[in-house]
Amino acid sequence: MRGQRGYTLIEVIVAFAVLGIALMLLLGTLSNGTRQVRWAADSGRAALHARSLLDGVGIDVPIVAGRSTGEFEDGRYRWSLAITPFVDPELPAAVPDPSGRQLFELALDVHWGEGSPRERLQVHTLRLHEPGALAVLAP
């Protein structure tokens, strides 16, 4: 029986333990990758909704100081839009434009999921309001 070689029970148990730890680390990495892909898809959709909403300001939504809220995709994405007259802190007191044109700041906040900081998109932009100007769409 001296010529027979094999693995002892201890060696087999250690090999299974090492294999189990390696699989656990691999599955954890894959799970994290899946979470990152989902977050990227959600934030991409939020950016598309934000762009769509901001593109309509001045056309579908009048440029008037105030706040409005709403939702996309049956409440999956919630948004809040604040429109305020823009005041440049670098310039002295603003002199009204005789033509009636005024610059507004649009602050859009879109959140989804639990609304944590990672599930939130904030966009700030400026829009010029020209009274009497009509939006003309090409056919």
Automatic annotation (TrEMBL):
It is a single-pass membrane protein. GO terms for biological process: protein secretion by the type II secretion system. Keywords: Cell inner membrane, Cell membrane, Membrane, Methylation, Transmembrane, Transmembrane helix. It is found in: Cell inner membrane. The chain crosses the membrane at residues 6-28. InterPro entries: N_methyl_site, T2SS_protein-GspI. Belongs to the GSP I family. PANTHER family: TYPE II SECRETION SYSTEM PROTEIN I-RELATED (PTHR38779:SF2). This is General secretion pathway protein GspI.
